[in-house]
Specification:
This protein has 13 helices and 6 strands. The model is unreliable at 44-55 (pLDDT under 50). It is globular and about 80 Å long. Helix 3 (49-62) packs across helix 4 (71-83) and helix 4 runs parallel beside helix 9 (179-196). It is of the alpha/beta class and 277 residues long. The chain is 46% helix and 10% strand. A hairpin with a 6-residue loop joins strand 5 and strand 6 (237-243). The protein starts with 9 loop residues before the first helix and ends in a 6-residue tail after the last helix. It has a 6-stranded mixed beta sheet with strand order 1-3-2-4-6-5, with helices on both faces. It binds uracil. The site of uracil has 14 residues, from helix 8.
């Protein structure tokens, strides 16, 4: 006789969930992506018509197949970022912005903008907030952030940095942010760079380096080299160096010497007096 399997008890389900949480599974992801725009859960507010056309062109030029069309949200981000005249109002504009899908999909608590000096000569740009950053509202405060802080202290940079990310909401399950998510946050990031006016950028991790520099190479080939970062409008240019992500260094401690070498090269340039024009 074919006995059908007994339905799992509540206790068995609870025990399985507890096991998963302990193993680090803190969010449920489906194998197949759900189009939440289509499903009506995420509806970006309507953009102003002229900016929308520009944004659509930009997004379609760079978005990959399968990524959502975020042209309207990008136009809104551009308009909101342009209005912010100081870093505090920019932080408020980001917190109020409803156009990034991560706000609904990954973030449990809040937008995570930046920490550090608002007139820093060095701006550090990571990939995106994780669970601890989402809980505390500050970037790089988990284990990876603590390692980053120790490295900055050893290089004498602690009080000379502003630390932020390419996206301001936690991607679900700490996955890498998509190019579309990074693009919708980019107007805010570029406005932050314009307001802070750092001398140099440090791009932490492959997802940050690739999206900021529009390069395809992996981080192991990009790290330790100088590139010229250019804003979307082309009116701002800064030297930028990619380096290894501290989360990678936690998994591969032998790579720390390469990240340290990058930090020393960067510090040397930061301390170099500007040549008179
Ligand atoms: N990793 C990042 O890239 N950014 C953070 O803020 C934390 C971890």
């Amino acid at each position: 006789m074919n006995a059908s399997p007994a339905a799992p008890t509540d206790a068995a389900i609870e025990s399985l969930l507890a096991f998963w949480v302990e193993a680090g599974v803190d969010s449920m992801l489906l194998d197949v992506a759900v189009d939440r725009v289509e499903a009506g859960k995420f509806v970006p507010p309507a953009p102003p018509p002229r900016l929308a056309a520009v944004a659509q062109a930009q997004v379609h030029a760079q978005a990959r197949p399968g990524q959502p069309d975020i042209g309207g949200a990008l136009a809104q981000a551009q308009a909101a970022a342009a209005q912010a005249q100081d870093i505090a109002s920019l932080a408020e504009a980001i917190a109020a912005f409803e156009g990034c899908p991560l706000r609904y999909e990954g973030a449990a608590r809040q937008a995570v903008v930046w920490r550090g000096r608002i007139d820093a000569p060095l701006m550090i740009i990571g990939e995106g907030p994780g669970a601890e950053e989402d809980a505390k509202g500050q970037p790089f405060v988990g284990r990876a952030g603590q390692l980053l802080d120790r490295m900055l202290a050893a290089a004498g940079l602690t009080d000379r940095v502003l630390i932020t990310n390419t996206v301001f909401w936690r991607p679900p399950g700490n996955r890498t942010p998509t190019l579309a998510e990074q693009m919708v946050c980019l107007p805010f990031l570029e406005r932050a760079i314009a307001l802070v006016r750092p001398k140099l950028l440090l791009l932490v991790g492959g997802a940050s380096a690739k999206s900021m520099l529009k390069r395809e190479e992996g981080i192991l080939s990009l790290r330790g080299r100088w590139f010229e970062w250019r804003s979307t409008t082309g009116d701002l240019e800064l030297p930028a160096m990619p380096t290894l992500h501290p989360a990678f260094l936690l998994r591969q401690p032998a790579a720390k010497k390469r990240a340290w070498a990058d930090l020393l090269t960067l510090t040397e340039r930061l301390d170099r007096p500007d040549r008179p024009a």
